[in-house]
Amino acid sequence: MKKISIIFTVLMFSTFASQAQKFGYVDSEYILKKIPAYATAQEQLEKQSKQYQQEIENKYKVVQDLYTKYQSEKVLLTEDLRQKRETEIITKEKEVKELQKSYFSPEGAVAKKRDELLKPVQDKMYNAIKDVSTEGGYAIIFDIASNPSIIYNNPRYDLSDKILEKMGFK
Q1: How many angstroms separate the CA atoms of 104 and 31, rounded?
Q2: Where are the domains of the chain?
Q3: Which residue in 153, 126, 149, 167 sits closest to 23, CA to CA?
Q4: How far is it, in rounded angstroms, from Cα 89 to Cα 152?
Q5: Of 51, 80, 97, 115, which residue has the fewest beta carbons closer than 10 angstroms?
Q6: Does residue 24 contact residue 138 with C-beta atoms inside 8 Å?
Q7: pTM beyond cutoff 0.90
């Protein structure tokens, strides 16, 4: 009997506590699309990425041309010259792979530029969400952009426009 009483008390408390909590949600993609600085930063990142990608492709083409030339001349070359050319091709290919890594790895130039350009806007959005949450007494605010498993959300609890207003956008 004592066990049932404890379970009943816990259930009643959790029901009461859940009724007292306020929940809301935001769509961070919607918010970020409404911020001009974010769109500008995205364009800059895309432009820089395309330049890096073009540079990588050009360098791979040089390696491919060296390899093609080597294949056509291979039978005419001495063993020393063949090894020298093979080493040259392998070295150039490694250089291109290292360059590609320096641009596109998680610690690469593109990632650093993304942090430099986008992080301030994302931080501003986070701080606005935190302020709205505190001012409105919300216990939890979900981001529906990053969690596609939410099946239904009532627009009444969408705080995205409040966040934009808090950030100074309409």
Answers
A1: 27
A2: 19-167
A3: 153
A4: 56
A5: 80
A6: yes
A7: no
